[in-house]
Write a structure and sequence with these properties.
Layout lengths: L18 H11 L7 H21 L3 H11 L7 E3 L4 E3 L1 H12 L15 H16 L4 H21 L4 H4 L4 H18 L3 H12 L18 H17 L16 H5 L37 H12 L7 E8 L1 H7 L9 H5 L2 H11 L9 H4 L2 H7 L2 E5 L1 H4 L9 E7 L4 E6 L9 H12 L5 H13 L6 H9 L12
Parallel strand pairs: 3-4
Antiparallel strand pairs: 1-2, 3-5, 5-6
Helix pairs in contact: 1-9, 2-4, 2-6, 2-19, 2-20, 3-4, 4-5, 4-10, 5-6, 5-8, 5-10, 6-8, 8-9, 8-10, 9-10, 12-15, 15-17, 20-21
């Protein structure tokens, strides 16, 4: 692929041994031939999952409003709007498609890097490809793999969920770097160009977790990150110089700002350690419940309890002990009538539907489910507290949940909810999820063609083929949702 020609020449500089420049050298040196086969294969399955999540999210009420509000001020063309049979500008495409992928809390997760990768990587990369006039599918897969690798590395280096405790939305903070890496790969940047792309995108890293309560904007955070990464890479491709060492810079770098003026809350070596040998993106997992990933440990344990024959009406009290980061994020009191987003962020609600329905999927967070008296009655019996014992297990086990269920008659059951990454990556489960989510909103022939292109994409295929399949309108996935 021929690199884009810069509008002016950037004076070459010595990148040095700092971790951000080292990452940039790795990104620039990577090629489709050097990527391990398991990395490319994982990129395919992550893309398939992201597409399913994006098409489900494309016609939800907040997605309709996001499209209307965005196109009111940006009426450009040239970018595919997934599931709408229309074009928008490439920047609007990255923003809105990223919003769709993250639109109903169904998308992927990284247990340590703390972001939803496809919502920022696949969306920015495809928009960049449309700017280029489309690229061969193998080049697209390389861009995805490098974006999937960059985002979690930034997240891990920054302390992952530790950032959430300070009130930042981690994916919105780490996501611009993933998007810039993916888009920069499509644009053919060299090492200097990648450093400018990361610098341009990283200066827009943001996202306030107060958005999770009574707003729609939390659903746009990853889309905003995708847009920032695309724009940062495009600027760099035209010679616009970004911040050097944007992550580790002593004054105003990402680490020093997010960690309160110091870098001791971060482990910057994790940004570049083992590049090309240890692939962090292989730890990206797929959600099995339609809610905040921090809730999955409790859900799994309580779904198992219900499956063992314990009815919800036999439960008198539930005590759930969680880590500091989970408690800060998910233990708040949800007021009736609630909203779908609030319910998806709330551990009490998730625990209640797990006990009542044996599931916490799409239907559990729609309007009829929110209106159920039995859900709110059971929530009143559930308490969530901070457990230092969980903190002591270490950062990698922070999603463990210690659960005590008191039954009518006095019997007590103690459960330990294990972190979702313990479930492992099941390719068959990804395909079943893809087909299950799209079955009611997309015709079967289109589903088959998407699956075939993404999982087997021959060398003659291009991103134009993918864009054409994503462009067609989809039917609304859910009704009765307002926020």
């Amino acid at each position: 692929m021929t690199p884009m020609t810069p509008a002016h020449t950037v004076e070459a500089k010595e990148l040095g041994a700092s971790p951000t420049p080292e990452l940039c050298r790795f990104l620039a040196a990577s090629s489709s031939r050097t990527l391990p086969s398991d990395v490319v294969r994982r990129a395919r399955y992550l893309l398939l999952d992201g597409i399913a999540c994006g098409l489900v999210g494309a016609r939800l009420p907040w997605a309709d409003r996001a499209v209307a509000g965005t196109t009111a001020v940006d009426n450009g063309t040239g970018g595919t709007l997934w599931g709408w049979d229309r074009e928008v500008s490439p920047l609007a495409a990255a923003l809105l498609n990223g919003t769709f992928v993250q639109g109903f809390e169904l998308d992927d997760f990284h247990p340590h890097g703390a972001l939803h990768s496809s919502s920022v990587v696949a969306t920015a990369a495809l928009a960049a490809a449309e700017v280029r006039g489309h690229v061969p599918f193998p080049d697209f897969l390389r861009a995805l793999a490098l974006g999937y690798e960059t985002g979690p590395r930034v997240g891990i280096a920054m302390g992952g969920a530790k950032v959430t405790v300070r009130g930042w939305h981690t994916g919105a903070v780490f996501g611009p770097f993933a998007a810039a890496a993916a888009a920069g790969t499509i644009f053919g940047l060299d090492a200097d160009g990648f450093e400018s792309a990361l610098g341009n995108a990283g200066t827009r890293a943001s996202g306030l977790m107060s958005a999770q309560y009574k707003s729609m904007v939390k659903r746009m955070h990853h889309g905003m990150a995708a847009q920032s990464g695309l724009h940062g890479a495009a600027l760099a491709a035209h010679g616009f110089v970004g911040t050097e060492r944007v992550i580790e810079h002593e004054y105003g770098g990402l680490a020093s700002v997010v960690h309160g003026g110091a870098t001791d809350g971060a482990d910057l070596s994790r940004l570049s350690h083992g590049l090309g040998e240890t692939w962090t993106m292989l730890d990206i997992g797929i959600k099995r419940h339609a809610c905040l990933i921090m809730l999955h440990s409790t859900i799994d344990a309580l779904v198992g309890l219900r499956a063992s024959g314990v009815p919800a009406d036999a439960v008198e009290r539930v005590e759930i002990g969680v880590s500091e980061s989970v408690h800060k994020r998910a233990a708040w009191l949800l007021d009736r009538p609630g909203t779908p987003l609030g319910a998806q962020m709330n551990l009490r609600f998730a625990a209640a539907v797990a006990l009542l329905d044996g599931a916490a999927y799409v239907a559990q967070f729609d309007a009829p489910s929110l209106a159920r008296d039995e859900v709110w009655e059971l929530m009143s019996k559930i308490d969530v507290h901070h457990s230092p014992e969980v903190d002591a297990l270490g950062r990698d086990r922070r999603f463990v949940a210690h659960i005590e269920v008191r039954h009518s008659g006095g019997r007590v059951t103690r459960l330990t909810g294990q972190p979702p990454q313990d479930h492992g990556f099941d390719e068959g489960e990804v395909v079943r999820k893809f087909r299950g989510l799209l079955g009611s909103i997309v015709d079967e022939e289109r589903i088959d063609r998407l699956e075939q292109l993404v999982l087997t994409g021959e060398k003659t295929a291009t991103t134009g083929d993918l864009a054409a399949l994503l462009r067609g309108a989809v039917r609304p996935a859910l009704k009765g949702l307002e926020s």
